Amino acid sequence: MMLPGWRQWLFALKVSGAALLALGIALWVDLPRPYWAMATVYITMQPLAGATRSKALYRVVGTLIGVSAAVVMVPPLVASPEMLTLALALWTAGCLYLSLLDRSPRSYLFMLAGYTAALIGFPAVTAPETIFDTAVSRAEEITLGILCASLVASLVFPEPVGPVLASRVGAWLQEAGRWTGDVLSGAGEAPAVRARRLRLAAEAAEIDALSAHLAYDTSAQSRAAPLVQLLRGRMLMLLPILSSLADRIAALKGLSGLTPELRGLLADVEAWSAAGAPAVEADALLARIEAADRPLPPHAASQAGPFWTALVRASLLDRLRELVAIGRDCRVLQEGIARGSGRSRAPLAFAGEFGGRAPRHRDHGMALRSALGAFLGTVACVVVWIATAWPDGATAAMMGAVLCCMFATQDDPVPAILSFATWTGVAAAAIGVLLFGVMPLVHDFVSLALVLAPGLILCGLLMTSQRTLPVGLALGVNGNALLAIQDRYTSEFGAYVNSGLALVGGIWIAALVTRLVRSVGAEHGARRLIAASRADLARAARRRGRGDRTAFAHLMLDRLGLLVPRLAAAGPDSDLSRIDALAALRVGMNLVSLRRARHGLAADEVAALDDALDAVASHYEGPRGPASAALLARIDAALARIGAQAAGAGRRDALLGLAGLRRALFPEAPPAGAPILAREAA
C-alpha cells in the first residue's frame, strides 16, 4: 500500500479544516444541528477547486428544491402515513430517474432534490407543525457546509481544473500518437494492446466529465471551454479513423497494393505524427495525399480484382486525409487550451461537423429499474418503521432513500452499499468511544477541534483514493451524523445505540431491496449497451434521410466509453470478450456516409444500395452473431451496380462507404469479384 503524498495530505487538511470551520460557524450562530454542516463538507469537497464549486452550486439548488418539496408534501399528508410515504418515495424515485438520464454534473442536482426531501420529510412526521422551521434550518446548515467547502477549496492552495485537464488531454493525444505510429507502420496488435486502445474511449469520456467543471474554474484554461468541446469531438473521431486505417493497410498488404509511393506517404505521415503533428507541415502532407488519389475506374467483371484494390486504396487515402486534418486540428486546439484562449488562431477542418451538443447514451430501462429500487427501498424502510414502532425508524427511512440513490449508477450497487453499511458500523463503534469516553472532557471549541481533527483528517485521506473513497465518505458523513455535535453535551447511550442501529439497518434494507430489484452485473450492462448500439445501427441503415456522422460518432463512442470497463469486468471467458467494438463503430460511420451518398445516385443505384442497407438493418435487428453470406452478396451487388457507372455525384462516396461496410462486417472475406456478379446475374 502506497503512503499518501503531499497532495493527499493537503486535501485531507483542507477538508478537515473546512469541516471544523463549518462547525464553528454553526455553533456560533446557534444552528439546531451543526453536524449537518460538517457532513455536507465531506459530501461536497473535491480535490479540484472547480469541481468543488460546480458540485456546490448544484447541491445548493438541489437542496432548495428538496426542502421545498418536503414543505409542500408533509403538512397536508401527515395524517395519512401511507400517502405521505408514497409521495416522498415517488418524489425520490422520480428525481433519481431524471438524474440517471442526465449523465452530466447537473445530474447531482436532481439526485439531491430527491433524497433531500426524504431527509427533511421523514423526521418531520412526528412534529409536522415545525416542518417549515426544520426545512429552513436544514437548508442553512447544508448551505453553510457547501460555502465552507467552496471557500477553503478556492482560497487554500487551490488546485484548478484547467492544468489537470490540459495534462490529461496531452497524455491522451500522446497515447493516440503511439497508436498512430503502430497503425501506419503496419505493426500488429496483441489483445492487450487492443484493450489499451479501447481504454482511450473511456478516457475521452473522463476528460469530457472533467471539462464540465471548467466553467467554474479560475485558471487560465477556464476561457478555453469552447476549444475543449471542439477538441473532444476530434479526439473521438480519431478512434474509428485509426481503426479503419489499420484495416485498410492490412487489406492492401493482402492485395499486394501497398506501392512504394503509398509506403513512403505512410512513413512521412508517421514521422509527422511522431513529431507532434505540427500544423505548419500538415498542408504539404494533405497536398501529397490529394496528388496520390486517383479517380475510381468503372467496374467490370473481368477487372474485379483491380477495381477492389482501387477501392481499398482510395478508402485508405480518405482516412489518411482525415487523420492529418484532425491531427492538425488537435494540435492547434491543444495549444489554444494551454494558452487559455477561447478561440482558435487557425482555421479548423470539419468546422461544421464538430459544433453543437454531443448526444449521450440514455438507458431508460435501467433508470426506471433504479427508480423502482429507490421507491421500494424507501417504502420497505417505512413499513419496518411503522410495524415495529421504531423510535428511530425515520433515520432508517432516510438512509434507505439516500443509499438507493447514491450508488444507482453502478451495475450491481449491492457490494458498495454493504461496504458502506460495514464502515458505518465501524464509524458507530469508533464514535461511541469518542462520544462517551472523550467528549465529556471537552469544554471549549479549541479542545473540541483538537479531539476531532485526527479522525477528520483520516476521513479526508481515505477520500483521496477511488478504492477507499466509499470508506472515507461512510466515516466522514455518517460519523459526523452519529457524533451529533451541538452547543452542549446531551448524549444518552440508549439513544445513540438506537440511532446507530437505524443507520445500519436502513442501509441493509436498501441493500436487500436493491439485490432483489436492481442488481444486474457488469455483463448484463454490457449486453444492454451492445443491444442499444445494434438498434441504432439498424435505425441508421433503415432511414433514408441525411445523417450527422459526428453526432452518431459521439453517441457510439459515449457507449464505447461505458462499455470498456464492463467488458473488462465481464472477464476473458465471456463471449463479450470477442466483440470488436471499434468495428461496429466503423459500420455506423459508413452507414451515415451511405445515407448521404444515396441522394446523388440514379434510381437503379439507389435501389441496389437500399437493398444492401435493408440487409444490414435486418442483420442488426436479429440476434447477435456473424453476418450472413446473403448480406455479403447484397453489398457486392450494390458495389457492382454503382461501380458500373463511370461517374456520378454520389458514386465515390457510395462505393467507399460500401467498401468500408464490407471490410467492417466481413474482414476475412475474399475481394469483391466476378463470382458474386455471376450469382446476381443468375
UniProtKB/TrEMBL annotation:
Membrane topology: Multi-pass membrane protein
Chief place where the protein resides: membrane
An annotated GO cellular component: plasma membrane
Domain of life: Bacteria
Keywords from the UniProt entry: Cell membrane, Membrane, Transmembrane, Transmembrane helix, Transport
Compartments, record wording: Cell membrane
Ranges that cross the membrane: 9-29, 56-77, 83-101, 108-127, 142-158, 367-387, 416-439, 445-464, 495-517
Annotated InterPro entries: PHBA_efflux_AaeB/fusaric-R (IPR006726)
Gene Ontology MF term list: transmembrane transporter activity
Name of the protein in its database record: FUSC family protein
